[in-house]
């Protein structure tokens, strides 16, 4: 496959597009994967969308806990949509190309939405800590104003967190080959394709990844340790959130907390699929199956559409 390149006024020959190999198997297997991924994607959008509709429809659930959950479901829809549609297109395409700009836009939105999710899970843990450990002060602390402010902080900080390293990586010379043996544009494969080494940029990228992953994860663990210490029976109400945290952070840590580890291409693809597609798929199931209020609200929404 010919490489699409351009020649600026330098001794480098720069790549104008990349080839995302993804899952390059025979046609029958790729068609099967397309059907599977499309089904998971559709169910993910439907499940998270149903939670948003249920929370919007039921006025009793317009409280901080469920506002955070509704925003989290909204975030999940955008998070999975930042990579899966292109993944599906590539499964049916022979070229599997993505433009230079498209690659870094995908990299930016995927990373930013992931960072936003990390921050949002932390805010949800903080909310549960206040509700269980400080029940008398909770209504005065977690006001609607603070709830809105925390949601906005998550989105703004998430979209600023990786901006500088992504800009720095985009300025690096990529002179070929232009083949990314991955399902998404990710820092590891991009660093490997660069013509020159950039240890400082690489250190900055993985340091920011470690901070946002470990920092938030430790805060969540600390919050639930205090919850368990204070009221052991109430800890069961946080099981849904802990399940989501374990799924999401577990797969992220495999990929990003130790840049010295050289994961195989297959391992990278499987791990990426897990936190990019599988986790958003399970989130609405985990939250709805363990929450009576959400199940009741979902029944009301479906009843209003004459589904039940």
From TrEMBL:
Spans traversing the lipid bilayer: 32-56, 63-79, 99-126, 146-168, 206-227, 239-258, 270-289
What is one Pfam family matched by this protein?
7tm_4
Under the cellular component aspect of Gene Ontology, which terms does the record hold?
plasma membrane
Q: Which domain of life is it from?
A: Eukaryota
Q: Name one GO molecular function term.
A: G protein-coupled receptor activity
Lipid bilayer topology: Multi-pass membrane protein
- Kindly give the InterPro entries that the UniProt entry links to this protein: GPCR_Rhodpsn, GPCR_Rhodpsn_7TM, Olfact_rcpt, Olfactory_GPCR1
G-protein coupled receptors family 1 profile domain: which residues?
Answer: 47-287
Q: Which PROSITE patterns match?
A: G_PROTEIN_RECEP_F1_1 (PS00237), G_PROTEIN_RECEP_F1_2 (PS50262)
Name where it's found. Cell membrane
Coiled-coil positions: none
Record's keyword terms, sorted: Cell membrane, Disulfide bond, G-protein coupled receptor, Glycoprotein, Membrane, Olfaction, Receptor, Sensory transduction, Transducer, Transmembrane, Transmembrane helix
Q: What does this protein do?
A: Putative odorant or sperm cell receptor.
The record's family statement is:
Belongs to the G-protein coupled receptor 1 family.
Can you name this protein?
Olfactory receptor
């Amino acid at each position: 496959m010919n490489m699409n390149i351009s020649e600026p006024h330098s001794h480098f020959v720069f790549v104008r597009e990349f080839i995302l190999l993804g899952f390059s198997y025979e046609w029958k297997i790729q068609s099967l994967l397309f059907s599977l991924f499309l089904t998971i994607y559709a169910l993910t959008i439907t499940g998270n969308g149903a939670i948003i509709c249920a929370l919007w429809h039921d006025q009793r659930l317009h409280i901080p806990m469920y506002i955070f959950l509704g925003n989290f479901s909204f975030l999940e829809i955008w998070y999975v949509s930042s990579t899966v549609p292109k993944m599906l297109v590539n499964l049916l395409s022979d070229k599997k190309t993505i433009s230079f700009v498209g690659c870094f836009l995908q990299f930016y939105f995927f990373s930013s939405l992931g960072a936003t999710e990390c921050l949002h899970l932390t805010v949800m843990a903080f909310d549960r800590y206040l509700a269980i450990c400080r029940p008398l002060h909770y209504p005065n602390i977690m006001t609607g104003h603070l709830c809105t402010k925390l949601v906005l902080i998550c989105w703004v900080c998430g979209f600023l967190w990786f901006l500088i390293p992504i800009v720095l990586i985009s300025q690096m010379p990529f002179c070929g080959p232009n083949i990314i043996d991955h399902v998404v544009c990710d820092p590891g494969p991009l660093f490997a394709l660069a013509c020159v080494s950039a240890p400082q940029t690489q250190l900055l990228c993985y340091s920011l990844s470690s901070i946002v992953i470990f920092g938030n994860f430790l805060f969540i663990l600390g919050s639930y340790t205090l919850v368990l210490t204070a009221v052991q029976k109430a800890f069961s109400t946080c099981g849904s959130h802990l399940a989501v945290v374990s799924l999401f952070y577990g797969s992220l840590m495999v990929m990003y907390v130790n840049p010295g580890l050289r994961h195989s291409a297959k391992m990278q693809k499987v791990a990426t699929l897990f936190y990019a597609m599988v986790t958003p798929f399970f989130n609405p199931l985990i939250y709805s199956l363990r929450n009576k209020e959400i199940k009741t609200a979902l029944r009301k929404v479906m009843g209003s559409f004459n589904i039940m």
